[in-house]
Amino acid sequence: MLDIRQLRYFVAIVEQGSFSRAANFLHVAQPALSLHVRNMEADMGTPLLVRVPRGVEPTEAGAILMRHARIILDQLTVAEEEIRGHDNDPSGEVRLGLPGTIGQIVAVPLITAARTRYPKIKLRIAEAMSGFILEWMRDERIDLAVLYGQADRHGISTEQLLDEDLLFFGPTGGLRPEPMPEPGSALPFATVAQMPLILPGRGHGLRDLLTRVAESAGTAMNTVIDVDSYGNIKSLVAEGFGYSILPENAINAEIREGRLQRWIIEAPCLTRSIHLARSGRRPMTKAAGVIHDLVRETLLDLARSGRWIGARISAPDGAAHRNEEGAPGNTGPGDAGLPVALGPAVRRTAVVSSRRRQP
């Protein structure tokens, strides 16, 4: 079988018109070139060169080989240039999974930065509950994810970046005849757990976290309504159907508008961590690697700048603990009739590409 070196030597011999000139051009001993040609002719079963007074010329078979050799070598050059350029200008598709509450904060600045820095990368962002995103990571249906809490041991590598406190909130007018503490003050978790609560259903990451804390405290959550949508939870609370627990960023707008009021939870303080996840079983592509770093940069910048209200960096300069294990993942009921490629729970998919939409 012919190899690339033999093709290069053969093309040089034909273009130079003689073994001696080709040897000087290639800086290869002439006997070595002659040996390569003899081996090629033996492999092909036919003469490839014929001697003429001025040197050598290709036979009919040699001309056919010359034509194909040039195409092969030209294509190899294109591939080498594309690979070298790929390091400086990566391209391809990267699939990122985000919980809905994080997507509301991260998606726009991340998309903006990705389009500016890496116009050849097509970034697909799919939003769902953390449990479904974790399942996609296990099945390698997405390349990267941002998760609440650590991933499990199913070949997923996570890096803790941020922490955010969970707050207790209710309608501005209150629910009970007895007065509530001043908004902004602290309430013990045991007291919060006994309030009529509107929470995500079982299997949702937040609900499971609250259930574990309640069990540790020897109490139970007084859940009166199960709703998996944060938007519906806030609307029901504002209408006076109960209280709830969400991160500060999720309720900040309603607090400013005077529709909701909030309290700090203590004994214990409720905190959940934000992790950047990738597959630990396969190497990242160049495109996935730069988007991974860009997601990390975006998350840390949102916390530093205060745009992610209530979030704080887990360790100085985001040098958080890296791990490949943690608490079991969450799964929960999702939305039906949505893209099958990522599963039934996709809430929204954004495709970012430098390609212009055709009319």
From TrEMBL:
Region called Disordered, residue ranges: 318-341
Biological-process GO terms, alphabetical: regulation of DNA-templated transcription initiation
Molecular functions (GO terms): DNA binding; DNA-binding transcription factor activity
Organism: Paracoccus salipaludis
Span of domain HTH lysR-type: 2-59
This protein's UniProt keywords: Activator, DNA-binding, Transcription, Transcription regulation
The protein's name: LysR family transcriptional regulator
Gene3D superfamilies (UniProt xref): Periplasmic binding protein-like II (3.40.190.10), Winged helix-like DNA-binding domain superfamily/Winged helix DNA-binding domain (1.10.10.10)
Family membership noted in the UniProt record: Belongs to the LysR transcriptional regulatory family.
